[in-house]
Specification:
Distance between the termini of chain A: 40 Å
Number of helices of chain A: 0
Helix content of chain B: under 10%
Order of helices and strands of chain B: EEEEEEEEEE
Largest sheet of chain A: 7 strands, mixed
Strand order of the largest sheet of chain B: 2-10-9-4-5-6
Structural class of chain B: mainly beta
Order of helices and strands of chain A: EEEEEEEEEEE
Number of strands of chain B: 10
Structural class of chain A: mainly beta
Largest sheet of chain B: 6 strands, mixed
Radius of gyration of chain B: 13 Å
Helix content of chain A: under 10%
Number of strands of chain A: 11
Distance between the termini of chain B: 36 Å
Strand content of chain B: over 45%
Shape of chain A: globular
Oligomer: heterodimer
Number of helices of chain B: 0
Shape of chain B: globular
Chain lengths: 117, 107
């Protein structure tokens, strides 16, 4: 069965860096675009970034562009989110999701990132 | 960027009620509209894609309609497990933006 498991969250100070991972299993990872979506405490969902199936294309929300980098290693079935210059407002649960039919059809359980000042 | 709005932001309903949630895009997104359900502390659950197609395993009491800029999610008869927050998401552009959500709670 399809599984997405995020890891790498934690507490980091303002201006610091963190790298999130999303380990995929149960499907042909290299055939699917993958997304990161986040949710600040008590707030709604915010789309963060997408990477194409082969890693050749990436798009970012304006709020993270220039600070975050989405990437993937298809040999390891793993999606990444490198987060630099972190701000307090980046505090959120970060979810990875698989894109199928222009929709996120499978989601991980999320990993919490807390940025403290 | 394409902006998404939802109405209402919250609603109170009873089991058995028919519930309708509206989502509007700032420009035409054709039928590239998805709906998700989220319960507290849980990941979003996909409900509908391409405006009106049910994701696998989603009960038939959920339906979606619309195209262009205006879309609707309807729950024909609310069940206890349907109390949750619902989000629309456009996938017309490369940046898959979400609406602000609609919380459905018990009257």
């Amino acid at each position: 069965q399809v599984q997405l498991v995020e890891s790498g969250g934690g507490v980091v100070q303002t201006g610091g860096s963190l790298r999130l991972s999303c380990a995929a299993s149960g499907f042909t990872f290299s055939s699917y675009a993958m997304h990161w979506v986040r949710q600040a405490p008590g707030k709604g969902l915010e789309w963060v970034a997408v990477v194409s199936y082969d890693g050749s294309d990436e798009y970012y929300a304006a709020s993270v562009k220039g600070r975050f980098i989405i990437s993937r290693d298809n040999s390891k079935n793993t999606l990444y989110l490198q987060m630099d210059s972190l701000r307090v407002e980046d505090t959120a649960v970060y979810y990875c999701s698989r894109e199928a039919g222009r929709s996120g059809d499978y989601w991980g359980q999320g990993t919490l990132v807390t940025v403290s000042s | 960027d394409i902006q998404m709005t939802q109405s209402p932001s919250s609603l109170s309903a009873s089991v058995g009620d028919r519930v309708t949630i509206t989502c509007r895009a700032s420009q035409s997104i054709r039928s590239y509209l998805n709906w998700y359900q989220q319960k507290p502390g849980k990941a979003p659950k996909p409900l509908i894609y391409a405006a009106s197609s049910l994701q696998s395993g989603v009960p038939s009491r959920f339906s979606g309609s619309g195209s262009g800029t205006d879309f609707t999610l309807t729950i024909s008869s609310l069940e206890p497990e349907d109390f949750a927050t619902y989000y629309c998401q456009q996938s017309y552009s490369a940046l898959f933006t979400f609406g602000p959500g609609t919380k459905v709670d018990l009257k």
